Each structure stands twice: as C-alpha cells, then as structure tokens.
Amino acid sequence: MRKIEPILAVLLAAAMIAAAIAAPWLRFVLTIALAKGIAVLGIMLLLRAGQVSFGHALYVAFGAYVVAFLAPRLNDAVLLLAAAAVGAGLLGLLIGLFVARYRQIFFGMLNLAMCMVFYSLLEKLYHITRGSDGIRVEVMPVAGQALDRVAYEWAIFGIALALALGLGILLRLYLSSPMGEALAGIKTRETRLEFMGVPARGVLLSAYVISAVVGGIGGALIAMTSRHVTPLLSYWTASGELVFIAILGGAGGVLGPFLGAAAYELIRVYAAASFADAWQMILGAALLLVILFAPGGLWGMAGRLAGGRGR
Question: Where does this protein have coiled-coil stretches (predicted)?
C-alpha cells in the first residue's frame, strides 16, 4: 500500500483541482478541507504514539490569530504562513514540555484544558481579540503579488495543496525514520525504549512540536480562506472535529487525514444543504459506519480495495 500512496495522493490532488474548476464554489470547501487535513496530520503523529490530543484546535486557532494580528504589518500570505508555523511551534514546545510527561487520558485532557484556557482568553480580552465578534482578514498579496479576490482564492488553494503534498511527504519520511519508529514504540513498549537509551519523552515532545507547527499552518490557511477569525476556532468542538476527521480518514498513512477532511467537509456541505436540521446526525452516522465496518478509516478501505493492508 505504501508503494501506491504517492499515486493516490496525485490522483486526489488532481480530483480536487478538477472539482474546483468544474464547481468554483467548491474551491472554498476544498481549501478548508486541505487546511484541516494539514492540522490533522499532527494528530496522526500523536496517534502513532498512542496519544490523543483533545485540544489540538489550540494551535489551529493560534495560527489563525497570528494571521489576523500580523496581517496589517506583514501583509503577505507567505510571510504570515511562516510566522504562524514558527509561533505555533514555539507555543507547542512550551506546552509540550509539560504535557509530554503524561500519557493516555491525562495527555488528552491536559491538552483540552489548555485549549479551553486559550478560548477563554480570546473571549474575555475583547479590547485585543474583539471577542466573539472576531477579526476580519482582508485579501492580501501573495509572495509580493497583489491579486483580485478570485485570483487570491486560487492562490491560497494552490498554496494549501502544495503544502499538503509537501508536508505529507516530509511526515511520511519522518515516520519511516528512527524517530518515527521510536514514536510507534511509545505506544507498545515505552519501557523498552528507555532501557535502550531512547528518551521516550523527548521523542514524544519532538512529535508534539511538529504537530503544533502543522496545526498552526492549518489555522493560518483557514484564516486566509474564511477571512474571519473567531474564538470558536479554539472551542472544544473544534478539537473534536479534528479527532473526528482523524478517525474518519484513518491514521494508517499520511493520506488518511486528507481523505477524512475532504469527506467530512463534503458530507457536511451537502447534508446541511439537503437536511438543514439533521446534518449533524448524518455526520455522526457516517462516523459510526466507519467505526463499525472500517476501523482503519477511509485509508484502510482504500488499502483493502488496493489489495494492501492500509499501512
């Protein structure tokens, strides 16, 4: 399955481009899906270590607010993406030094607590964050080029797609490296890792910082696409949505988060349009079906169809 993963990635990218051309309104939906898929890559890393972060929306919201606060000064999408990645990474290092000491439910709930503290600050510090009203993000130059609205949307879609492919390749290499193998060892034999001289806490911390970086990048892309940032990006339901996508897509490969994000956004859009009062039930039913009949998620299903094991 790993051999055909690059081919499937190219096919998925081509399908997204074709869909965005055929139905321009899908460009927004697919860009958001790519941004969330990038953020879910970080959750996938932590799942390899057997840890679930119930508060990863913290880094998505942080990246989005970096864009909102710095846009009037930097005023370039590329620079803002870099700033969001660096800022989220530093925040992830600060928090990770604390939470990497814990495992299982304690790890998940501590992340959730941090996320809700951040949400409360965004809500209460109205004179800085404008509270629940949020902050509007204007159309900005991309790599120094001033663009109209349509060209800007295409540029952000292209950047999101390029980042999805690039980060997917990098994390695939990371998971195949000794650090990635050690990360998987935390889930099954952490004590043995320590006896071998591999610091499990350091391995988990490095993965946590990487997950924060990709979360910040995803949040920055969401801010540039929706052009409106609110504290709801850091609410606990936003973190639950990321975990939902991770389960739906499957954590067996780096393509899983993007399959899950695309399916989630498309199901939500069409369900909300057709059944305005029951779209949450449809999403829940979709997740239930995946859990019952495809525990490996959409990536696992693709693996079985391809005759592999989804790994």
Answer: none
CATH number assigned to the domain comprising residue 20: 1.10.3470
| Contact indicator for 122, 229 with CB cutoff of 8 Å | no
Q: For residue 256, is it within any domain?
A: yes
Q: Is residue 294 part of a domain?
A: yes
Using one digit for the tens of pLDDT, what is the confidence trace for 242-295? Answer: 998 998 888 778 888 998 899 888 888 887 777 777 777 887 887 788 777 777
Domain count along the chain? 1
**Closest residue by Cα to residue 250 from 290, 282, 308:** 290
In a domain, 81, yes or no: yes
Name every residue whose Cβ is closer than 8 Å to that of residue 230 and which is 6 or more positions away in sequence.
Answer: 132, 133, 134, 135
User: How many angstroms separate the most distant Cα atoms in the chain?
Assistant: 58
Supply the range of the domain harboring residue 13.
5-305
Distance, in Å, from the CA atom of 228 to the CA atom of 172, rounded to the nearest integer, reads 32
Q: Is residue 129 part of a domain?
A: yes
- 3-class DSSP state for residue 142? strand
Q: What residue type is 237 in one-letter code? A: T
Q: Long-range contact list for 124-127, CB < 8 A, 24+ apart?
A: none
CA distance 81 to 220: 6
Is residue 295 exposed (0-12), middle (13-18) or buried (19+ Cβ within 10 Å)? exposed
